[in-house]
Amino acid sequence: MSYSYADDSNLMVKSRKIETIVQTARDALEKTGDWCNNNNLVLNMGIHIDLNMKWEQHIKALSKRLSTVVYSLHILKYRFLGGLGRTLCS
């Protein structure tokens, strides 16, 4: 089995009317999703937005990931790098 990744794909929508932006974006995302399904590709946008277009779920997930990274840096600083860790992370 092999995996390939494509980074930095963008869909852009421009209009003076918010309704037009929303509808055009929905249409574009639906067509993109259909194309991906037909070609056995998976989209991962890397964001979490609920049905009410709120960011709470995304912020919670991001905070959890960042907390894990900060804790890992803390472990590296004090346990593995000794005095050098204090110098690098200060």
From TrEMBL:
It comes from the Eukaryota. This is Reverse transcriptase domain-containing protein. It comes from Cryptolaemus montrouzieri. The lineage of its organism: Eukaryota, Metazoa, Ecdysozoa, Arthropoda, Hexapoda.
